[in-house]
User: Fold this.
Amino acid sequence: MKNQLSSRFVRSIGQLLAITAALAGVLVAVPASAQGDLLVAPTRIILDGRRGTEVILSNIGSEEATYRIGLELRRMTPEGQLVDVPTEEANEIEKAALAMIRYAPRRITLPPGQPQAVRISARAGADLPDGEYRVHMSFRAIPQPRPVTESTEQAQGISIKLTPIYGVTIPVIVRNGRLEATVAINDPKIVQGEQGPELHLAMSRSGQSSTYGELRVIRAGSSEPIYMARGIAIYSELAERRVAFRLTPEEAAAMKGQLRFEYREMPEAGGRLIAAVETVLN
Amino acid sequence: MVVLHGIEDQLSKDQNKMKKYLRLGATGAVLAASLGMTSVAHAQDTATADAFAEILTALQLNVATGTSLDFGAMVVTGAGTVSLAPDNTLDCSVATIVCSGSTGVPTFEVAGTPLKNVTVKFDASSAILRRVGGVVGAAADELVLDSFTSNASVNNSGPVPFYEVSLDGLGDSSFEVGGDLNFDGSEVPGVYQGSFDVSVEYS
Assistant:
C-alpha cells in the first residue's frame, strides 16, 4: 500500500518538475501580472475511510502566492453542471461527508515553482452507513493587497483595477462498504444544435456508487473509436446523466451506420466496460 | 478517418509527453525527500505502464501573462453602463460616458484531462468596486461590475445553461471573461479597485 502511494506521489512530482521546468524559461524573462496560478494533482481522490493520501498543490505562477484550501459541497445536474450547495442546505450524506474529511494544511504560501503536499484522510465511524460520500476540495489564491497610487494623468477620469480571484475544485470521494453501480446508455442521437451538430445521449445509473469513465463511439468492424469524450462522471445523486457534445461536421458525418457506444472506466483505472449499446444512426 | 487519425496522433503525442515526464523520475525522488516524505525508494515504479495514466491527472489554471480585465479610462457625467465583451469589444455607446485608452480581457488557461468537459463558474453575480481612498458605502465612491460573460462554450442542453470548457486532445483550453460596469453618475474620478471570482470545477 505504501509503495503504491509513494510511487503515485513520485510520479506527480516528476510531472510537476517537468511543467515547472518547461515554464521556468518563459517566466524568468517576462514580468507577469497574474498571481495565483496553480496546479493540482491528482484531479480526483477516492478514499476508503482508512488510509489517507496527498494532493499536490504547486504555484506555477511567477510570484509568491498564498492559497486557501477548503471543502465545499456540489451537486451534479443531469447535464453535468456542478452546482454549489450552501452548508445549511446540505442533506445528511453531505453533512456526514463534510464531518469525516480531515486535511492539512488549509493555507499554504508558496514561492514560484514550489509544490507542497496537502494530506487528506477520511475518518469513517463504525456506524457509518454504507454508501458514497463526497465533498469538493477547493484551491484558491488569496490576493495580496497591492498599493495603488492615483496617477495625476487619470485624475480627470475613472479607471479600474480588477483582480481576478481564481481557483479550482476537485472531487474527494469516500466509499464506505462494497458499493456497486449499473449504468445503461440510452438513445444516442445526433442533434442539430445552435452551433452545429451535437451528440446527445443519456446514461441511467443505479446503485450506491458513482462512475467515472470515457465514452467511445466505435464503428462496426473497427476497433478504434471514431469519437472519444473522457472524464465523464455520473455521481451517486444522479439517476440519469445526459451528455451533449459538440461535433465537428466531419465527426458528425462519420457517426452514421452501425455504431457501438461504450462507457468504460478510464484507462488508468483499468478500462473496464461499464455500459455499451449498439445502434444504427442515420 | 480524419477523426480517427486525430485521436491516434493525440495519443502518440501523449505517449511522447509521458516519456519526457518519466525521465524526471529520479529528480522527483530527490524533491520528495526534500519535502520530508518518508518513502522515496520506489522511484523506479515511475517506469511502469500505468504512468501513462498518471500524467493525465494534473489540473492547471492560470491567467495568461499580461492579460487582465481592463476597461481603460472613463469620464462619467451621468448614469450608464459600459460593456466589455469577452472578445475585447467595448460598448461605450451611452451618451453620459466617454471612454478612452486601451481595453483588455483576461485569458484563463486550463490544462487537464484530454477530451474532458469542465464546468466554469463565476462565484458571485456581481462585484462592488471601491475608489482608492474613498469611503466604504458611499455611492460616489462605488460602482458595480456584473453580467460576467465568457466565451467558454455554453451548455444549454438542460433547463439552466452553464459555461463549460472542452479540453482538447492535449488537455488544453482557454476562455476569456468580460463584464458590465454600472455607473450611477455620482462617481468621483479616481482609481476603483475590486475583484471577481472564477472557478474551474472538475468532476
Q: What stands out?
A: The radius of gyration of chain B is 23 Å. The first strand of chain B starts at residue 59 and ends at 63. Chain B touches chain A through 100 residues (CB under 8 Å).
